[in-house]
């Protein structure tokens, strides 16, 4: 009888989801727009840091175009690849209900767009509002191929906070004086760690503290007394970033396009991939104030870019030449500030924006995340002691296919592209955060393994950081889903005591979670979106080394709960 009741409950839940999807579709049709865009990937000459560089851009813009849509709109973006590299575009944080073919990660949901080729991404924004972004998802192209995706509430509805007088996108980036593709290719060839960046940027500009940069520093003009909505995106390749505005308090109202309870703070920290919306009232004396960002570096002895990027917040009616006031940014390794900020975030959990936190789970998974080293038989590689750097989840260093995408292989039933035996728990249990971990545990297995989830399964993933070679904070991004961060802590996760401290009422909902250095984070979501969904560290150096896996979510019970057919122009491998 209990099994029958569970079956009935699950059937009802699936039908309820179908009804919600259908009603959402009907509602969206009344006010939604179909927006068409064209992206041309091309080599563009730009001047930065006293030199001229050729970088890959979209439509000749760096950063790329900011896209403005509303909740319910359909976006159709035709991408022409006129660059010399394979390319894809990922719509970071977009749920992609039934449209996994448009998600974008190379060899996961599609084969790359070859030079001279094209592909049209088609998807609908469903039930999402706030700040997301788009970026390349092939090699290190996203160093320069990225832009903001701003989703406004449906026409006739409002933000759940004071309507701002103006909105200002703030896109944080990372700059190399060398071609980033050459940087990662050299590291891959030698096995060494790639060179760190030469600068950070705000809206494409390094700012006053770098040589040959002052004349192009980004400037935001504001009026005294007005409320400004800063939409802040960390598009940096490999660096967590602190952000602050001199003499101004920020009120966080959303993260990763999910509304939060208002949170006042003088500084925020964003991992690569994360977004934060803050309200800033221009309530200081008329003048000029720096907005500034610099690294949060959690790994002891791990090289990082220690420079600071700035932009200027300038009050109208004041001096346009005075020296701006500089904010007090935390020190590079200030984990306490990072933890305090993360711990205070809460979902809005209001009547209009409720929090549907799973109270129980069907699948409980424990995934270790961290670095490793692989021996180089018969040669000396560029890593420590002649080894090659690697990274892994549950000791599996993920290898992308090359002849087929995982989603295509799953849909066509093609064998030999991946296996479905990704472990639910670490193959060897040990003291994950110990100071001295046995060298026998340092070498992961390189393979293409996925975890298969039944449709509508409630999933909990414990992401456990390790101290193999070097412990670091890892920004883990899950494609195709938002999830609730129900808990986090330092040390090893304790399955008996830590769940007692979980927040199952109003935890923050995100698409990218920063796993604390030498710690863990617990996330929950319902696998209600069929497809192949990459979960990976958003430090690109780490995904290059294999810190990733894929959830393959099966179709639901009928067509409206199943993946759409692949587009006719899906690129071939």
Quick structural summary:
The chain has 573 residues and is mainly β.
The total count of strands amounts to: 32
The residue-averaged pLDDT reads 94
Q: For this entry, what is the oligomeric state of its chains?
A: single chain
Q: Distance between termini?
A: 50 Å
Structural class: mainly beta
Q: Spatial order of the strands in the main sheet?
A: 10-9-12-17-14-15
Tell me the helix content. 10-25%
Low-confidence stretches: 1-17
Query: DSSP strand (E) fraction?
Result: 35-45%
Sketch the major β-sheet.
Answer: 6 strands, mixed
Q: Report Rg.
A: 23 Å
Large-scale geometry: globular
Name its key features.
11% helix; 5 helices; 32 strands; 37% strand; 573 residues; single chain; six-stranded mixed beta sheet; disordered N terminus; globular; mainly beta
Give a written overview of the molecule.
The protein is 11% helix and 37% strand. It has five helices and 32 strands. The strands form seven sheets. The protein has a six-stranded mixed beta sheet, with no helix packed on it. It has a six-stranded mixed beta sheet with strand order 21-20-25-30-27-28. It has a five-stranded mixed beta sheet with strand order 11-19-18-13-16. Strand 1 and strand 2 (51-58) form a beta hairpin. The N and C termini lie far apart (50 Å).
């Amino acid at each position: 009888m209990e099994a029958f009741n569970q079956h009935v409950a699950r059937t009802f839940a699936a039908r309820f989801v179908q009804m919600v999807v259908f009603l959402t579709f009907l509602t969206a049709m009344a006010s939604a727009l179909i927006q068409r865009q064209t992206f041309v990937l091309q080599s563009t000459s730009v001047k930065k840091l006293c030199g001229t560089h050729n970088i890959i851009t979209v439509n000749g813009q760096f950063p790329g175009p900011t896209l403005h849509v509303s909740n319910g709109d359909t976006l159709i973006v035709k991408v022409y690849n006129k660059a010399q590299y394979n390319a894809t575009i990922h719509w970071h944080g977009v749920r992609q209900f039934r449209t996994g073919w448009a998600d974008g990660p190379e060899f996961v949901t599609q084969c790359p767009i070859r030079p001279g080729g094209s592909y049209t991404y088609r998807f609908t924004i469903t039930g999402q509002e706030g700040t997301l972004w788009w970026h390349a998802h092939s090699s290190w192209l996203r160093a320069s191929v990225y832009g903001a995706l701003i989703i406004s509430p449906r026409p006739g509805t409002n933000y759940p906070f004071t309507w701002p007088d103006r909105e200002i996108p703030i896109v944080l980036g990372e700059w190399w004086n060398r071609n980033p593709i050459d940087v990662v290719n050299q590291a891959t060839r030698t096995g060494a760690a790639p060179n760190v960046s030469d600068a950070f940027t705000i809206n494409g500009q390094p700012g006053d503290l770098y040589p040959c940069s002052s004349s192009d520093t980004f400037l935001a003009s504001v009026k005294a007394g007005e409320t400004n909505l800063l939409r802040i995106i960390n598009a940096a390749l490999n660096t967590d970033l602190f952000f602050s505005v001199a003499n101004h308090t920020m009120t966080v109202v959303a993260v990763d396009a999910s509304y939060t309870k208002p949170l006042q703070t003088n500084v925020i920290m964003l991992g690569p991939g994360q977004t934060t919306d803050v309200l800033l009232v221009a309530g200081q004396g008329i003048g000029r104030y720096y907005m500034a960002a610099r690294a949060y570096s959690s790994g002891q002895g791990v090289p990082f870019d220690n420079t600071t990027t700035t932009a200027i917040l300038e009050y109208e009616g004041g001096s346009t030449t005075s020296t701006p006031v500089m904010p007090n940014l935390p020190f590079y390794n200030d984990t306490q500030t990072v933890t305090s900020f993360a711990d205070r975030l809460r979902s809005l959990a209001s009547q209009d924006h409720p929090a549907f936190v799973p109270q129980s789970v069907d699948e409980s998974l424990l995934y270790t995340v961290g670095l490793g080293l692989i021996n180089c038989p018969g040669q000396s590689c560029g890593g420590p002691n002649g080894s090659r750097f690697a990274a892994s989840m549950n000791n599996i260093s993920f290898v992308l296919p090359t002849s087929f995408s995982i989603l295509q292989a799953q849909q066509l039933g093609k064998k030999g592209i991946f296996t479905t035996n990704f472990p639910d728990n670490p193959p060897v249990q040990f003291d994950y955060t110990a100071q001295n971990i046995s060298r026998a545990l340092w070498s992961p297995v390189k393979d293409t393994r996925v975890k298969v989830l039944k449709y509508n399964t409630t999933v909990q993933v414990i992401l456990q950081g390790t101290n193999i070679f070097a412990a670091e904070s890892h920004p883990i991004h899950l494609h195709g889903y938002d999830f609730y961060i129900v808990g986090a802590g330092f040390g090893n996760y304790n399955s008996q005591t830590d769940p007692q401290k979980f927040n199952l009422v109003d935890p923050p909902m995100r698409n990218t979670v920063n796993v604390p250095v030498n710690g863990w984070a617990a996330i929950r979501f319902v696998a209600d979106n069929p497809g192949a969904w990459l979960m990976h560290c958003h430090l690109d150096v780490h995904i290059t080394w294999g810190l990733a896996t894929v959830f393959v979510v099966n179709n639901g019970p009928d067509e409206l709960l199943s993946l759409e057919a692949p587009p006719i122009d899906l690129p071939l491998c």
